[in-house]
Amino acid sequence: MGKGFYISKPLGFVLFGLGAGAVLTIFALSVVYVQEKRKNEVNARDGTRIVTTAAPHRTSAPSNEAWDKYRLPDALLPEYYNVTLWPRLVPDEEGMYIFTGKSGVVFTCLKETNLILIHSNELNFTLTSEMHHAKLTGLGGTSAPAILETWFQTQTQFMVIQLKRKLQVGKSYWLYTEFHGELSDNLGGFYRSEYTENDVKKVVATTQMQPTAARNVFPCFDEPSMKAVFHLTLLHPPGTVALSNDNQEVLQTRFEPTEKMSTYLLAFVVSEFTNIRSPPEIRIWGRREAIESCQGDYALNVTFPILKYLENYYNTTYPLSKSDQIALPDFAAGAMENWGLVTYRELSLFYDPKVSSNEDKEWVVTVITHELAHMWFGNLVTMRWWNDLWLNEGFASYVSYLAADYVEPTWNIKDLMVQQQVQKAFDVDSLVSSHPLSSREDEVITPDQIDQLFDTITYSKGAAILRMLSEFLTESIFANGLHNYLHEYAYSNTVYTDLWKKLQEVTSINEIMNRWILQMGFPVVTIDTRTGSITQQHFLIHPEAVVDNYEWFVPITWLKSGSNMGQHWLLTKTASYEPMKTDTDWLLANLNVTGYYRVNYDPQNWERLLTQLNSDHKVIPVLNRGQIIDDAFNLARADIINITLALRTTKYLYEEKEYIPWESAVRNLEYFFLMFDRTEVYGPLQGIYGKGKLKYCMVCVTSVYRYNQINAVSMACKTGVKGCSELTRMWYRQWMKNPDTNPYGKCFSKYLEYSIDPNLIRKQDITYAIVYIADNVIGQPLVWDFVRANWEHITKDFDDGSFFSGGLINGITKKFSTEFELQQLCCLIFIFWKPFTFDMQAIERAIEQTKANIKWISENKAQVMNWLIEQSD
Ligand SMILES: *[C@@H]1O[C@H](CO)[C@@H](O)[C@H](O)[C@H]1NC(C)=O
Ligand SMILES: *[C@@H]1O[C@H](CO)[C@@H](O)[C@H](O)[C@H]1NC(C)=O
Ligand SMILES: *[C@@H]1O[C@H](CO)[C@@H](O)[C@H](O)[C@H]1NC(C)=O
Ligand SMILES: *[C@@H]1O[C@H](CO)[C@@H](O)[C@H](O)[C@H]1NC(C)=O
Ligand SMILES: *[C@@H]1O[C@H](CO)[C@@H](O)[C@H](O)[C@H]1NC(C)=O
Ligand SMILES: *[C@@H]1O[C@H](CO)[C@@H](O)[C@H](O)[C@H]1NC(C)=O
Ligand SMILES: [Zn+2]
C-alpha cells in the first residue's frame, strides 16, 4: 500500500487517496449504500377584416433598462390565462395562413412597479383600448393604473407596457390583448403541417413551444418557473378535432383548465386526424390512413404498461386524467413532452410491421418512454431555468431504458445504454470544445443560448451521469429520493441541488456530483498492476490539447480474474492499492461501464486481458468486452496506447456471438473506413474485415441478436464482399422501379436539389437526406459544394437550428482529413460568421476534428497497413 488510504476491508470499501474532508463523508455514505445493497436487490367570425395599426417596435442598443434584459423581472406572477385561438386552415386573400387570438392573464403584483413586461414575438396586435395594444383591469375592487405607452422590444421579445402609476403589491390584475400571427411552416410556435390524403391536401395546425415559442402564439410570461393555469378555447372548422393538454367538453372547443404548468409544455392541435384508444383515456392520434393501417397499434399497446411502470417507479400516480399522443407529418425534433398531449414525428410514434425495422420499433418504444418519463420529471416538477435542462433531459433519457426494458424484457435494452448514451457522450466530451453539463443561470439568457443546450452533452452525458449515480447509490435509494423529490416539488420548480437533497447524505452527493457536473470532460483511469498504482487524467482525444487540471471522484468497480472486488473510490489524481498489484491475474475495471470513465492498464495486463478474450471471452461480462474494444480504440486515437493493440482486441471476435462487442468494433472501425476509404489502406482493410477469418463470424452471428444482421450486411458490403454487393444492388434496382416507395429515385445531384424544395422533401428531413448522400465517397464532395452554395437558403428559416445545422456540419465533414479540406472549413467561419449562433460551435468542432484526423492519418497509416498485411499472411 503506497500513499493510499485504506479502510475496513470486510465492508469491501476502499478509499484511494486523501480527498481532504470529503473522505469521511463519502465513507459514511458508502456504508449506507453497501448496507442498502445487501438488503435489496373564441368568438371571432371568419371574414372579419382584422384592423391593425402599425405597432411601435423598438430596437435599441443594450442598456440597463429592464426591457433590454432577456430575463423577466420578478415583480409579477401569473396565476391563470384565458386564451382563445383560431387557426385558419386555408390561406387568406394574400395567400398567408394565419391564426387570430384573444388572450387575458391574471397576475399578482409582488413588487411595486410601473412597468409590465410580458413576452410576445412576431404577433400583430389589434388596438384593445383607444390608444393601446393592451387593456389593464384591476381585480377584487382594485383600480388599475392607466397605460402611458405600449411598445414591442424586438430583441428581447417583450411587449412593454409603461403605466402612469405603480401597481399595488398583493393585488391582482387582468391584462387583455387581441392579436394575430402567421401559421407558418417553420416547425415552431403555432405552425402548420401538411399532407395529402386521397389526393386532397390537408392542413394541420399544431404547436411546438419548447423552449421559447409560446410567446409567438400569445403574450405570456414565457419562462419555465412562471407556472400558471391555462383556460384554452380553440375555434376550428367542422370536420376537424381540437386537442390540447386537458379534456374537452362536447363542443370540442373549450378545454378544462390545465394543471398549474409551464408555458413551454402547452400544446394544441387542430386536424382531421383520427384515433385509436384504450381505457383509461389513452389515445393515439394520426393521419386516418396511418391509423387505419394499424401503425399506431404498437404505441397504444405499450402506453398503458409504460405509464403503470412509471407510476410505480416514481411511486406517484399519473398526474393527469388523460394521455394523448399524436404523430405529425412535419415535426422538427423526435418528439415533445407537452403535458398530456405528446407530439411526435411520425417515425417516433408509428410502427408498421410491414415496413418498419426492429431498430424503428426500438426507437418508437424509447421515444415514448422518454416522453412519458417527462410527465412527472420535467412536467410535474420543472427546472427553474434552462441551465438545468440537463437534469430534465438526462433523466428522461436514463429512465426511458428502464421503462422500455419493462415493456420489452427480451431485448436487453438496458445494455444498449452504454453504446447509445455513455459512449456517445464520451465521443463529444473528449473534445476540448466540450462544455460542462451544468451552466450558470446567467450564462444561458437568450433564446439562441437556450437552443444550444439541446445537445449530446445534455441528453447523453446527463443520462450517463445519472446512471452512474443510481448505480453507486443503488437503484432503490435513487428511486426513493426521486419519489420524495416529486412529492415535495409537485407543480413547482427546482434546481438540481434539490434532487441531491432528497438523495440522503447531501454533502457527499454534492461533493461527488459537482465534479461530474461543473467540469467538462471525464477521466481515463490507469491501473498499473505491476505497482498497484491507480491514476486519473482528463481524457482528451487529441493528445496535444491543453485544458485545466481536472480531478474527479471516481467510483471504481473491478474484477480480478473473474472475481468481483466491489466498489472503491478514487478521490485524488494518483493513489496506490495493494490488491491491484499482481503479476498473474488480469484486472478489469469499471464493471458494466456504470462509471463515466475510460480505463487503461500497463502493457502486461493488456496482454493478460487479450489472452483471456482469446481463450474464454465469456468470463468477461459482455458490456466489458465491448468496453475493452471501445476504450482501446479511443486510447489509441488519443496516442495513449499503440494502435496495433487496439486492432488486436478485435481478433477474438471470430468467437463472439453477442451484439455489443461487435457493435463496438464496427463503430470504431467505421473511423478507419472514413479515414482510409480514399487511400491504399482501404484494400487490406476490406480484406481483413470482409474476406478473412472475421467475415465468417459475421455470418455465424446473424441469428443471435436482432441487430447483428444489420451490422453483418453493412460490414460485408463495406468490405466489398461480392455476394453482398450483388444482393443490395438487386434490392436497389427493385426499389428504384417502384414509384410508390421511391418517387424521387435519382442520382445524387438531382436528389440534393430536391432536398431544398419543401414540396419534395420535408424540411424536417433535410439534414438526413444531405448527410446520407455525404456518407458516400462520390456524394461527399458534391454535398460539400452544394451546402456552401446554398447555405443561406438551407439555414434561413429554421428557428430550431440546434436540431438542424449542428448535425449537418458534422455529417458532411466527418471524412475531412486533408489540409485542403481544413482550409475550406476554416473559410466557412469567415463567410458565415454570426455572433452567438449555433453554427459556430458546430464549425469549431468540425475544425478540431479535421485537424485531429490529419494528424491521426500521418501517424498511424503505416502501422495500420503493416498490421493488416501481417494478419493476411
Ligand atoms: C377566464 O375563463 C374562466 C373559465 O371560462 C372564467 O371563469 C373566468 O371568469 C375568466 N376570467 C376572466 C378574467 O375573464
Ligand atoms: C404583421 O405585421 C407585419 C408588418 O406590418 C407584416 O409584415 C406581417 O405580415 C403581419 N403578420 C401577419 C400575420 O399579418
Ligand atoms: C398489440 O396488442 C395486440 C393484443 O395483444 C396484439 O394482437 C398485436 O399484435 C399488438 N400489436 C403490435 C404492433 O404490437
Ligand atoms: C410509496 O409512497 C408511500 C407514501 O407516499 C410510502 O408509504 C411507500 O412506502 C412508498 N413505496 C415505496 C416502494 O417506496
Ligand atoms: C452487468 O450487466 C448484466 C447485464 O448485461 C447483468 O446481468 C449483471 O448483473 C451486471 N453486473 C453487475 C456487477 O452489475
Ligand atoms: C506499436 O507496435 C508495433 C508492433 O508491435 C511496433 O512496430 C510499433 O513500433 C509500435 N509503435 C509505437 C509508437 O510504439
Ligand atoms: Zn426530453
Automatic annotation (TrEMBL):
<dbReference type="GO" id="GO:0042277">
    <property type="term" value="F:peptide binding"/>
</dbReference>
<feature type="transmembrane region" description="Helical">
    <location>
        <begin position="12"/>
        <end position="34"/>
    </location>
</feature>
<comment type="similarity">
    <text>Belongs to the peptidase M1 family.</text>
</comment>
<protein>
    <recommendedName>
        <fullName>Aminopeptidase</fullName>
        <ecNumber>3.4.11.-</ecNumber>
    </recommendedName>
</protein>
<feature type="active site" description="Proton acceptor">
    <location>
        <position position="371"/>
    </location>
</feature>
<dbReference type="InterPro" id="IPR042097">
    <property type="entry name" value="Aminopeptidase_N-like_N_sf"/>
</dbReference>
<keyword id="KW-0482">Metalloprotease</keyword>
<keyword id="KW-1133">Transmembrane helix</keyword>
<keyword id="KW-0378">Hydrolase</keyword>
<feature type="binding site">
    <location>
        <position position="393"/>
    </location>
    <ligand>
        <name>Zn(2+)</name>
    </ligand>
</feature>
<dbReference type="GO" id="GO:0005737">
    <property type="term" value="C:cytoplasm"/>
</dbReference>
<dbReference type="GO" id="GO:0008270">
    <property type="term" value="F:zinc ion binding"/>
</dbReference>
<dbReference type="GO" id="GO:0005886">
    <property type="term" value="C:plasma membrane"/>
</dbReference>
<dbReference type="InterPro" id="IPR050344">
    <property type="entry name" value="Peptidase_M1_aminopeptidases"/>
</dbReference>
<feature type="domain" description="ERAP1-like C-terminal">
    <location>
        <begin position="586"/>
        <end position="741"/>
    </location>
</feature>
<dbReference type="Pfam" id="PF11838">
    <property type="entry name" value="ERAP1_C"/>
</dbReference>
<dbReference type="InterPro" id="IPR024571">
    <property type="entry name" value="ERAP1-like_C_dom"/>
</dbReference>
<feature type="site" description="Transition state stabilizer">
    <location>
        <position position="459"/>
    </location>
</feature>
<dbReference type="InterPro" id="IPR034016">
    <property type="entry name" value="M1_APN-typ"/>
</dbReference>
<feature type="domain" description="ERAP1-like C-terminal">
    <location>
        <begin position="749"/>
        <end position="826"/>
    </location>
</feature>
<dbReference type="InterPro" id="IPR001930">
    <property type="entry name" value="Peptidase_M1"/>
</dbReference>
<keyword id="KW-0735">Signal-anchor</keyword>
<keyword id="KW-0479">Metal-binding</keyword>
<dbReference type="InterPro" id="IPR027268">
    <property type="entry name" value="Peptidase_M4/M1_CTD_sf"/>
</dbReference>
<dbReference type="GO" id="GO:0005615">
    <property type="term" value="C:extracellular space"/>
</dbReference>
<dbReference type="GO" id="GO:0043171">
    <property type="term" value="P:peptide catabolic process"/>
</dbReference>
<keyword id="KW-0325">Glycoprotein</keyword>
<dbReference type="Pfam" id="PF01433">
    <property type="entry name" value="Peptidase_M1"/>
</dbReference>
<feature type="binding site">
    <location>
        <position position="370"/>
    </location>
    <ligand>
        <name>Zn(2+)</name>
    </ligand>
</feature>
<keyword id="KW-0472">Membrane</keyword>
<dbReference type="GO" id="GO:0070006">
    <property type="term" value="F:metalloaminopeptidase activity"/>
</dbReference>
<feature type="binding site">
    <location>
        <position position="374"/>
    </location>
    <ligand>
        <name>Zn(2+)</name>
    </ligand>
</feature>
<keyword id="KW-0862">Zinc</keyword>
<keyword id="KW-0645">Protease</keyword>
<feature type="domain" description="Peptidase M1 membrane alanine aminopeptidase">
    <location>
        <begin position="298"/>
        <end position="516"/>
    </location>
</feature>
<keyword id="KW-0031">Aminopeptidase</keyword>
<dbReference type="InterPro" id="IPR045357">
    <property type="entry name" value="Aminopeptidase_N-like_N"/>
</dbReference>
<dbReference type="GO" id="GO:0006508">
    <property type="term" value="P:proteolysis"/>
</dbReference>
<keyword id="KW-0812">Transmembrane</keyword>
<dbReference type="InterPro" id="IPR014782">
    <property type="entry name" value="Peptidase_M1_dom"/>
</dbReference>
<feature type="domain" description="Aminopeptidase N-like N-terminal">
    <location>
        <begin position="78"/>
        <end position="265"/>
    </location>
</feature>
<dbReference type="Pfam" id="PF17900">
    <property type="entry name" value="Peptidase_M1_N"/>
</dbReference>
